[in-house]
Amino acid sequence: MHFTINGQRHEADVDLRTSLLDLCREHLGLTGSKKGCDHGQCGACTMLVNGRRINACLSLAVMHQDDEIVTIEGLGQVGNLHPLQDAFVRHDGYQCGYCTPGQICSAVGMLDEQKKGWPSYVSESLTDSELTDAEISERMSGNICRCAAYPNIVDAIREVAGKGDRQPVLEAAKEIGA
Amino acid sequence: MDAAAVPSGLADPGTDRGGGLLGRPIDRVDGLSKVTGGAPYAFERAPKGAAVAAIVGAPVGAGRVVAIDVAAAAALPGVLAVIVDDPRMPAGQASSGALPQQGTDRIFHYGQPVAIVVAESQQVANEAAALVRVEVTPATGRFDPRGEPVIDEPRIGFLPPVEMGDVDAAMADAAVTVDATYTTPVHFPAALEPHATTAWWDGDRLTLRSSNQVIGAARKTVARALGIEAERVRVLAPYVGGGFGGKTGVGAEAILAAIAAERVGRPVKVALPRRQVAYMTHHRSDTVQRIRLGTDTDGRLRAIAHESVVAQNDQGRFLEPVPFGTLPLYAGEARRFTTGLVRVDLPETGAVRAPGEAVGTFAVECGMDELAERLGINPLELRRINEPPVDPTTGKRFSTRRMIDCYDEGARRFGWPERVPDPGSVREGEWLIGIGMAAALRGNFTVEAQARVVLDEGGRARVECDMTDIGTGTYTILAQVAGEMLGLGLDRVDVVIGDTDLPPTAGSGGSFGANSSASAVVLACEDIRAELARRMNAAPEELAFENGCVRAGGRETPLADLVRGEPIVGRGHTKPGKETEATSQASHGAQFCEVAVNAVTGEVRVRRMLGVFDIGRVLNAKTARSQAIGGMAWGLAYALHEDGVVDVRDGRFVNPDFAEYHVATNADVPQLEAWFVEQVDASANPAGAKGVGELGISGAGAAVVNAIYNATGVRVRDMPVTLDKLLPGLPAV
């Protein structure tokens, strides 16, 4: 079979049960995407498939022969960082780093979803949402960070989204309904 | 340390730091590797030809293994071996303190490893593992800790019972008392990287890439378990995807991987599936804690008792030291602190982030809140009244203790004086609003550590030790220390850690990692400075280091010019000494929280949390803050969500994965504020730093629970505070 990952064509002969995540990690040497649960619960394996974020552990490799797949390695490299990668470093949006590739890929997908007008659980409007801290937190809640770098992750994403400084704490809290 | 002394190379943070690096909020030096996916963890960069393994767990919670039928598994194409008979196979995790039973047929708990399957791929290994048939003779298990007899003197653990004065008599005489029992649930460390090991043999030498916090101890432990000399084992852990205590020992998977690699003659890698992590590694015990507090009418404590019961299985030696943080926390003449034990047939309990304080502060700090209300005294004032001048249990002086400053600074920043004391009286629409606070305290440990610093002919420094970076910032902090001591920018300092071929440290655990390894690096740099002073014909204290140059008596020389061909090797060795023995050492803090509780649904939202912490010298303001807020988020989740549930019928966990065991997600955690009251603790260690990684969780959960009480008037003593426990007591909508 052949796959297009980070703009490069790869050939691989895989067991039909191989997930997209294991294809990248075990067959193609792309170990940037992480396996935290293998059950779609933690988000560490998040990749972009045709521009949309997915849990690569929940998707079989054989389903993706004609897809454009982007992993953390394709998003940016040392010397040529994606703005989110740069922002995560400056805002300390991680500690152990294991969830980080998934967080960053997820944030890329999330920002695009929001830009296209997709609502989230906390959106006031179903067609038009402002990217508040509450929106960022809600939309990023599929990516677990056990080190709990969440406040810094929100800071990094907000900056890249061009939303300026941190909101006053209480204002942000009230947006989530409390 | 033998003497309280600040090394000459480290500026006092109160003074102008000039071009110094230490303490500054510098970005992590390993950050680029983490955000680009290049950082290699234990299951990555395996040698060519590595086989993949899956572990089979015991199908019952108690009994004996009678037979294991491997025929179907072994016959599957792609299976290399199914191992059930190696006498070194461990029945649990191992530590430097004790090995598990090996080659036993006894089942200590559900999911205990009984076989390992090695195959060409994970898919085949998993399928084969499912085909292994384990025949057992089941026994009646002790699966409900609350149903088992309490052993009052367990003779395990490190914290002996404390009895001072007559607590019963003091309670009887007290004007105001609290006598309440609190419970906390099973707590999973749940690092996002599962326990994983890649093992390979070169002749009779074994190398393990393992997800482990303390690789120096792991090396010796693995060697003992396999019956070989430690010199033949090398453990590598350049990146560890979180530990939280769960990776302090050696998981069964590491020893099984070594056995499997030997059997198949190829490298073998194994990563535990998420559910197996819960069974094959340790968790924090559930706890039952009785708090008794008795005061005069003015709020002065006369009696303080913290009596607890925790669980352990028949193999485990660890005993959650529940009252440990309470020992030095408050004054009071009559004192009683105990930890009872129940033996169970469940997976092992062990050290999870802030063993003792993480759970102990729930009880004692909620108890203090209850006491304050009975006394009609502000909770913060009650704590101030009972601030002890010396350690009230040992009588030792405190090395540094800035608790009062933490209370004051926290109260000011948070707006504590605006608190409305009457519970349930602040409302915004359908939300009940409340605030709460708690003290934070975590014992400070000084441990032995060594480091080597090599200054090469190019004027670059390389720091080497077997310390790990589990997300705590070790790479960055050690680079900052060496850079500060030798006047080098971070671009001229390399840090090599996570390899047992390097000088030994105690690794990451107990919040001793950064301060101990940083101290060893300080001493190694002092060694280099002394040699440079000789070459400059100057006294070490005359030397000034800046921009890669050293100045003495009006002369300035590039470091590289002083090296002269051979690198200069500095060695540092730090260990606890007289000063450690003479003082009572801890990190301190004050936690504040505001919650909103929905009057209709009982849903709790944490609106804001603020902590002020006394951690001695701040080594890196950015990574220290990250650790502090991470700990606070742990406290939040422990108070509201995390709840490991045991099925008492069969000893299985009901919720051993991220779908059912709810750690904090992004939407649960508001912007958290952490501030530091910085004071170099010269008694603690040469770096003057105290622990930070575990302090943030201490007291944080109690602040949440106390805020919930202030919001609603409902006092929940059984953690976590889920809405079913709140709903019956909520005021009318």
UniProtKB/TrEMBL annotation, chain A:
<dbReference type="GO" id="GO:0016903">
    <property type="term" value="F:oxidoreductase activity, acting on the aldehyde or oxo group of donors"/>
</dbReference>
<dbReference type="Pfam" id="PF00111">
    <property type="entry name" value="Fer2"/>
</dbReference>
<dbReference type="GO" id="GO:0046872">
    <property type="term" value="F:metal ion binding"/>
</dbReference>
<protein>
    <submittedName>
        <fullName>Xanthine dehydrogenase YagT iron-sulfur-binding subunit</fullName>
    </submittedName>
</protein>
<keyword id="KW-0560">Oxidoreductase</keyword>
<dbReference type="InterPro" id="IPR036010">
    <property type="entry name" value="2Fe-2S_ferredoxin-like_sf"/>
</dbReference>
<keyword id="KW-0408">Iron</keyword>
<dbReference type="InterPro" id="IPR001041">
    <property type="entry name" value="2Fe-2S_ferredoxin-type"/>
</dbReference>
<dbReference type="InterPro" id="IPR052914">
    <property type="entry name" value="Aldehyde_Oxdr_Iron-Sulfur"/>
</dbReference>
<dbReference type="GO" id="GO:0051537">
    <property type="term" value="F:2 iron, 2 sulfur cluster binding"/>
</dbReference>
<dbReference type="InterPro" id="IPR012675">
    <property type="entry name" value="Beta-grasp_dom_sf"/>
</dbReference>
<feature type="domain" description="2Fe-2S ferredoxin-type">
    <location>
        <begin position="1"/>
        <end position="75"/>
    </location>
</feature>
<keyword id="KW-0411">Iron-sulfur</keyword>
<keyword id="KW-0479">Metal-binding</keyword>
<dbReference type="InterPro" id="IPR006058">
    <property type="entry name" value="2Fe2S_fd_BS"/>
</dbReference>
<dbReference type="InterPro" id="IPR036884">
    <property type="entry name" value="2Fe-2S-bd_dom_sf"/>
</dbReference>
<keyword id="KW-0001">2Fe-2S</keyword>
<dbReference type="Pfam" id="PF01799">
    <property type="entry name" value="Fer2_2"/>
</dbReference>
<dbReference type="InterPro" id="IPR002888">
    <property type="entry name" value="2Fe-2S-bd"/>
</dbReference>
Automatic annotation (TrEMBL), chain B:
<dbReference type="InterPro" id="IPR000674">
    <property type="entry name" value="Ald_Oxase/Xan_DH_a/b"/>
</dbReference>
<dbReference type="Pfam" id="PF20256">
    <property type="entry name" value="MoCoBD_2"/>
</dbReference>
<protein>
    <submittedName>
        <fullName>Xanthine dehydrogenase YagR molybdenum-binding subunit</fullName>
    </submittedName>
</protein>
<dbReference type="InterPro" id="IPR008274">
    <property type="entry name" value="AldOxase/xan_DH_MoCoBD1"/>
</dbReference>
<feature type="region of interest" description="Disordered">
    <location>
        <begin position="567"/>
        <end position="586"/>
    </location>
</feature>
<dbReference type="InterPro" id="IPR036856">
    <property type="entry name" value="Ald_Oxase/Xan_DH_a/b_sf"/>
</dbReference>
<feature type="region of interest" description="Disordered">
    <location>
        <begin position="1"/>
        <end position="23"/>
    </location>
</feature>
<dbReference type="InterPro" id="IPR016208">
    <property type="entry name" value="Ald_Oxase/xanthine_DH-like"/>
</dbReference>
<dbReference type="Pfam" id="PF02738">
    <property type="entry name" value="MoCoBD_1"/>
</dbReference>
<feature type="domain" description="Aldehyde oxidase/xanthine dehydrogenase a/b hammerhead">
    <location>
        <begin position="36"/>
        <end position="140"/>
    </location>
</feature>
<dbReference type="InterPro" id="IPR037165">
    <property type="entry name" value="AldOxase/xan_DH_Mopterin-bd_sf"/>
</dbReference>
<dbReference type="InterPro" id="IPR046867">
    <property type="entry name" value="AldOxase/xan_DH_MoCoBD2"/>
</dbReference>
<dbReference type="GO" id="GO:0016491">
    <property type="term" value="F:oxidoreductase activity"/>
</dbReference>
<dbReference type="GO" id="GO:0005506">
    <property type="term" value="F:iron ion binding"/>
</dbReference>
<dbReference type="Pfam" id="PF01315">
    <property type="entry name" value="Ald_Xan_dh_C"/>
</dbReference>
